[in-house]
Design brief:
434 Repressor (Amino-terminal Domain), 2 domains, disordered N terminus, mainly alpha
């Protein structure tokens, strides 16, 4: 017979007012390391409950403690984000903005063959190209030169 884990949801959180002290808050949910998705969901519920309110020092410290455990669990369980290269970002920006390769050439003031070489990775972006693209797509230039 499978034993069900005790649910850690904190649906009994007071809805009218937030307890004033850390100790009072801990009576509803004790901040501690998270070990599974149910504990994680309960902690996120607490964070959502407190977020957006003007908090006193105890309330803020409590929110900070719960948030630290939430972040640690997320860091442990979520795969790291893959960094995309500058060329991948440029291709994505062009596609999302309906800018064709020949339009890239016009935007940069170069002929279509140069734009094609940029998009194929055979030619690197110049500092002038980076300024133009950064301004046009509102992204930091350093993101466009990442390997």
């Amino acid at each position: 017979m499978k034993t069900l884990k005790k649910r850690h949801f904190v649906s009994k959180l007071p809805r009218k007012s937030i307890p004033e002290t850390y100790e009072e808050l801990a009576r509803f949910y004790v901040p501690r390391p998270l070990h599974d998705d149910m504990e994680y969901e309960a902690a996120v519920e607490v964070v959502d409950w407190l977020a957006g309110h003007a908090l006193n020092r105890d309330q803020d410290d409590y929110l900070e403690a719960v948030s630290v455990f939430v972040k640690a669990y997320e860091d442990e369980t979520e795969p790291p984000a893959r960094k995309i290269s500058g060329l991948e970002l440029l291709r994505y920006l062009l596609e999302e903005n309906d800018v064709a390769g020949k339009d890239l050439g016009k935007l940069l003031g170069v002929d279509a063959s140069v734009a094609s070489r940029i998009l194929s990775g055979q030619r690197k972006l110049t500092p002038q190209d980076l300024r133009i693209l950064s301004g046009r797509f509102r992204v930091p230039a350093d993101l466009l030169v990442r390997e």
